[in-house]
Amino acid sequence: MSSPVPSGAAGPPDAAQSSDVAEIERALSRVAHMLTRFRQHDRTVIAAGVPVDRAAVPLLRALAEHGPMRPGELAARLAVEAPHVTRQVQRLERAGYVELLPDPDDKRCRRVGLSGSGLHAVESIRASGRRWISEALAGWSPGERERLAGLVHRMVDDFEAHSGHGEAARSAHTEAARSGHGEAARG
Fold first, then answer.
1. Long-range contacts at 167-176 (CB < 8 A, ≥ 24 apart)
2. CA of 103: how far to CAs of 71, 85, 119, in Å?
């Protein structure tokens, strides 16, 4: 009995594509390792003055970018299980970063929204991350940074579309890039 062949695994890619894809995978693995190291997260939140764990940051960012939403919508947007969101919301509510708001569409439901402290926390985390990136890429020209941003947004969009999360998670930054900013990165 043979096992099913995963999608996209029908045959070997040509040598040039294989080499390019291998280098992309290698670079992304290095970036992922660096960004997910516990110490890197600690440095970012300490510099931002925001004592939250790693799992809370994407939740706070999603609320800042998309506004209040039901916990189930938030879980879907982040591609995580609902209990994970429930636990994070409870912690963040106790810390004063989020608040539960009435849902105007259904009085039985609540939406999760950022409090003033939560918005300040997200802004501080973003500023800390931007400082780090600015320092790390100090030798890059503005054009190089713009092209990189456009290509990274494009790559993330393609990865999300390939994984089935494309439209739900599309960022406002990517839409701006497609409407004229960062056109050089799109080739």
1. 168/76, 168/77, 169/77, 169/79, 171/65, 172/65, 173/149
2. 11, 17, 20
Per-residue pLDDT of 63-111, as tens digits, reads: 999 999 999 999 999 989 999 999 999 999 999 999 999 999 998 999 9
Same domain, 69 and 123: yes
Find the domain containing 127 and state its range.
47-136
Q: Which residues of 87-114 are buried (b: 16+ CB within 10 A; e: fewer)?
A: ebbebbeebebbbeeeeeeeeeebbbeb
Count, residues in the chain: 187
Q: Which CATH number is 125's domain given?
A: 1.10.10.10
Q: What is the pTM of this model?
A: 0.71
Average pLDDT, the chain: 82
The residues that bridge with 143 in the sheet, in sequence order, are none
